Amino acid sequence: MQQVSRFTRLLCVTLAFLFLLPATISIAQRPDAPDYALRGDYVVGTQNLTIEDPNRPLEVTIWYPAINTDDLPEETVYQPGTLLQLDGRAISDAQPDTSSAPYPLVIFSHGSSGFRFQSRYLTEHLASHGFIVMAADHTTNTITDLLGDPEFSDNLAPNFIHRPQDILRIISLADDLTAEGTFEGIIDVERIGVLGHSFGGYTALAASGIPINLTELGNWCDAPTIDNVEDIDGICFLLNFEDSITDAAGLTETPDGAFPIYADPRIRATIAYAPWNYPILDHTALETHSTPTMIFGGTADDTTPPLRDAFEIYASLDSAPKTLITLENAGHYVYVDECWQTAITFGFYASCSDAVWDMARVHDLINHFTTAFLLTELYEHDTARAALDPANVSFIGVDYETTTP
User: Are the CB atoms for 280 and 213 separated by under 8 Å?
Assistant: First the structure.
């Protein structure tokens, strides 16, 4: 999450070249997949939508339970640009399945310099279990912006304001979609879950009611709780962008405390995968936050170190039902889609893999915990709730902790 070096930009350009070739998702299921890692009973449909805005348009993809009366193969090609192509396991523009509608809404937020298709294994999986899943490219903070915008680092800071606002705009879009048209009556906008990776983890927490606080960040930078200089530089540079964050919030002065809250009270569940970053969050809001929250962290993550971020966020949630899932020796990128052969051939295996974890296995675990949590909180599903009981959680390499106030 640090400011972008020339080397990083060159690396991303090379990776983007590799992305021009289609990436195929394996549909083979590991035999040791836990219950909620198994694909659900619904066929998955997908459509692309646009939230029009002269200043910040959002490209949105929706995945949903669908019908397949023509017995079409469940496959599609996502094309988030003129060149990039990614294979998926869904049917484009399929008719929604109304049999069990309305379905709860789940919104996924990508990481900084990511994009809305970065975790298709997860977004498609959730739709197969009876959720309407929506994800947007956060304008000015995508891989395309990183490659083409020399001011990418400058634009990163205002996204602490823009990103949770994006989530509210997606919810507003869902309100409109379920009122009339193809998705009329399909989306239950009173049952919403928000999840995200890295900067998207922050986004999910912010949209659930936890704002930023630059005073808290300044205090932490003056007396950091960790000794790693790189970790300090990785967040304290944001203090140089106080004015742009304040402007993005529409304020004339930087608050001496919490910024405005950009949240929707209909959000009933929050999941943050390797969230970034604890020191900038308003600590009072964390302590009083009551939305059920699941936090993931990997002990080998040096991008969002869990000692600074995930573990501190979890410990500060004094009022919320909360769960912490620690993936031993996992890095930052276990939450994104697995490599395909072209990336491996050209030597970029480390960018879409993990040094320790088998990606298919860790994705099964992420899908299992995520699906069970959302079924519990948005469907009140007793079997899923039982799967999250510590007595029923026993996976090698996973430390599991859950607390109810």
Answer: yes
